[in-house]
Known about the structure:
This protein has six helices and five strands. The chain has helices at 36-50, 69-85, 97-107, 112-135, 139-159, 163-172, and strands spanning 3-7, 12-18, 26-32, 54-59, 89-93.
Amino acid sequence: MRRIGVDPGARRTGLAFAEPDVRIAYPLKTIEHRGYEQAALMVAAEVSSANAQQVVIGLPLRSDGSEGEAARSVRRFAAMVEASSTVPVVLWDERLSTAAAERHLSSARIFGKKRRSVVDQAAATLILQSYLDAIGKSAWVEEEILQIGPAVKSDRRRRGRSAGEKRWRERRK
Length: 173
């Protein structure tokens, strides 16, 4: 299922996408707008042009998990997107996604105008990736982890300590 991730803002909205069989989110674009009504129409147009089957919109909850005015505005925005695109919309907890995107961009040494143009895309990518990670924990993945887990542990017990660990312990003496 092709998905579009959205980090809504009052002036700029970041978009990300994920292809049907790939569980990796990629930045798509930042749209500049005047208000949530215009943003909803622009997002609906992007959803249509990308042939997306689902929209994941970041819901800005407070740190205690409650909803404030920003979350209520995003809920209204989500309803407008869903009405104008006829694609199901999922609201996803986006607490601190923009702050995390800012940290990533700082570590990548992206500043100034370039940073302003991509921070919303980066936040939308983090929101969508978080959603994909959460839904990706299906039964077959857990089954595979359980099959691999015990084999790795028993193998280590049989081999004993690695050569590197032995050298480290000898140097430490």
